[in-house]
């Protein structure tokens, strides 16, 4: 007989205990309805289970959806309405944008286009170790708009390339030779990831959730488009990407600084891949089409009648890849990560949405805002304080999605209550939601992959991550703030 799927007992018990305590023993504040408080109990229990990895995130999410439907907390006394509410997350187009984009990204690995892009940049810029770092940076930035899984991008595509380069110079953890070049490239490999994740809505799964929460927090007054987000991130993102390899180079200088053989190594890899295949050409054409549609180029050239919804654009791209045979339906069915993301994203978006509708976010924002307002700070200082607390609390999270779901809406609403400009506040907190990934070796899915390869110690990783978090914050708050002011966003 097959064994039962094991639960992790400690996080499971903690999640259940906290949920029951909030539901039965801790009364809601006078301004909060009982059913809203009960939804908060389910929400907090879900987040604890996700953070503690009591079960796979998809399984936790299905249980959360079931509990919302069974308990009727979103619509007391109306079971049919409660079920519709529980399943409403699956109707959110942003969820399917990420799901479709993740399915599209399968083509990068299947066709070999992702590896070809990486080795091509190294063949151009790889004569120096610093050049290899910038080549990896360029490669990941090129892939970021069409790779919504930052883990697949940084850990699944760029990291194997980085490892093969380090190995070619005899820099391996098992040989105690990480200091030659591997440690430096591993830290660069990882610290690219938070920056590129911040630069595009489609570069990491939580970004569409951020967009959704900003729209809900402003009652639809602020809706960030794909192009608006990318334009806002362009200047601070490029600045961070230019600075990061230099800063890591200063912190942990590699023993090998000149790599004249790296371009030859990359060209050999490219030769091994052979000429660009038809599936690669189709994939490249689809990615170019998606970038044009997501950036709103048809609407800009020919008028709003030709504007294409980002999710519709992703669906078109996926249809082309399926229709041309680049991807098969079996490829799509086997991509558990995409279907998993659709499920847990739907659950978290649904719960976060109803927390807002039932007044919990408003109440929490008043509580947080009231605490800060008692300090007598202006909106600039208040925004900075909110950002610092929001970003550095990621030391306590092993999931950016859980962090965003648990804290973004409340902190955004608190900043609005303290008179911060909505677009400015939304951009700062939205970009911080990715930049905070730099902090730890468990901050996002990419981290354990690269840290687990053994090139750095824990101390080296955390030191580089903290310093990069400070540098990134300074760049995005100052350069970014001025850039957004010039764009007229605030």
Account of the 3D structure:
This protein has 490 residues and is an all-alpha fold. Helix content is 72%, strand content 0%. Helix 9 (150-168) packs antiparallel against helix 10 and helix 20 (379-392) runs antiparallel to helix 21 (400-417). The longest helix is centred in the last third of the chain and has 30 residues, at 458-487. The radius of gyration is 23 Å and the shape is globular. The termini are far apart. The mean pLDDT is 88.
Topology of helices and strands:
Blueprint: H1 9-25, H2 34-51, H3 57-71, H4 79-86, H5 93-104, H6 106-111, H7 113-125, H8 129-143, H9 150-168, H10 182-199, H11 206-217, H12 226-251, H13 262-273, H14 278-294, H15 297-302, H16 310-324, H17 329-334, H18 336-357, H19 360-373, H20 379-392, H21 400-417, H22 422-435, H23 446-451, H24 458-487
Helix pairs in contact: 1-2, 2-3, 2-18, 2-21, 3-4, 3-18, 5-16, 5-18, 7-8, 7-13, 8-9, 8-10, 8-12, 9-10, 10-12, 10-22, 11-18, 11-21, 11-22, 12-24, 14-16, 19-21, 20-21, 20-22, 21-22, 22-24
Helix content: over 70%
Shape: globular
Radius of gyration: 23 Å
Number of strands: 0
Order of helices and strands: HHHHHHHHHHHHHHHHHHHHHHHH
Q: What is the beta-strand fraction?
A: under 5%
N- and C-termini, Cα separation: 62 Å
Biggest β-sheet, characterized? Answer: none
Structural class: mainly alpha
User: Counting H and I runs of at least 4 residues, what is the number of helices?
Assistant: 24
Mean pLDDT: 88
């Amino acid at each position: 007989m097959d064994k039962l799927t094991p639960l992790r007992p400690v996080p499971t018990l903690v999640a259940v205990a906290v949920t029951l305590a909030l539901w039965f023993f801790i009364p809601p504040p006078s301004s909060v309805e009982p059913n809203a408080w009960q939804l908060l109990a389910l929400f907090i229990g879900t987040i604890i289970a996700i953070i503690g990895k009591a079960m796979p995130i998809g399984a936790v999410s299905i249980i959360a959806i079931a509990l919302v439907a069974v308990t009727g907390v979103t619509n007391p006394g109306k079971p049919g309405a409660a079920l519709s509410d529980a399943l409403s997350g699956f109707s959110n187009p942003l969820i399917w944008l990420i799901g479709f984009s993740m399915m599209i990204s399968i083509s990068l690995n299947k066709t070999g286009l992702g590896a070809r892009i990486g080795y091509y940049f190294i063949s151009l810029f790889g004569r120096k170790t610093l050049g290899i770092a910038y080549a990896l940076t360029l490669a990941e930035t090129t892939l970021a708009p069409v790779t919504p899984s930052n883990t697949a991008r940084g850990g699944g595509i760029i990291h194997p390339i980085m490892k093969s380069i380090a190995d070619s110079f005899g820099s391996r953890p098992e040989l105690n030779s990480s200091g030659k070049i591997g440690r430096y490239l591993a830290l660069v490999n990882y610290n690219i990831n938070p920056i590129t994740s911040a630069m595009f809505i489609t570069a990491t799964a939580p970004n569409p959730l951020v967009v959704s929460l900003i729209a809900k927090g402003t009652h639809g007054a602020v809706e960030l488009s794909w192009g608006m987000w990318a334009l806002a991130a362009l200047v601070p993102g490029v600045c961070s990407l230019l600075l990061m390899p230099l800063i890591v180079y200063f912190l942990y200088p590699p023993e090998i600084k000149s790599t004249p053989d790296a371009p030859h190594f990359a060209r050999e890899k490219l030769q091994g891949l052979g000429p660009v295949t038809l599936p690669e050409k189709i994939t490249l054409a689809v990615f170019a089409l998606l970038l044009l549609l997501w950036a709103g180029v048809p609407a800009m050239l020919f008028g709003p009648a030709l504007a294409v919804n980002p999710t519709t654009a992703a669906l078109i791209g996926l249809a082309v890849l399926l229709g041309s045979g680049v991807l098969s339906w079996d490829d799509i069915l086997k991509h558990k990560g995409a279907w998993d993301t659709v499920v847990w994203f739907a659950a978290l978006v649904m719960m976060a949405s109803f927390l807002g509708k039932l007044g919990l976010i408003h109440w929490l924002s008043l509580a947080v805002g009231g605490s800060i307002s008692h300090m007598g700070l202006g909106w600039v200082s208040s925004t900075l304080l909110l950002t610092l607390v929001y970003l550095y609390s990621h030391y306590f999270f092993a999931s950016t999605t859980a962090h965003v779901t648990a804290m973004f809406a409340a902190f955004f609403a608190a900043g609005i209550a303290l008179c911060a400009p909505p677009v400015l506040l939304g951009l700062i907190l939205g970009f911080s939601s990715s930049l905070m990934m730099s902090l730890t070796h468990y901050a996002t899915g990419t981290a354990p992959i690269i840290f687990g390869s053994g090139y750095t110690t824990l101390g080296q990783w955390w030191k580089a991550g903290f310093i990069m978090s400070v540098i990134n914050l300074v760049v995005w708050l100052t350069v970014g703030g001025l850039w957004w002011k010039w764009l007229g966003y605030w």
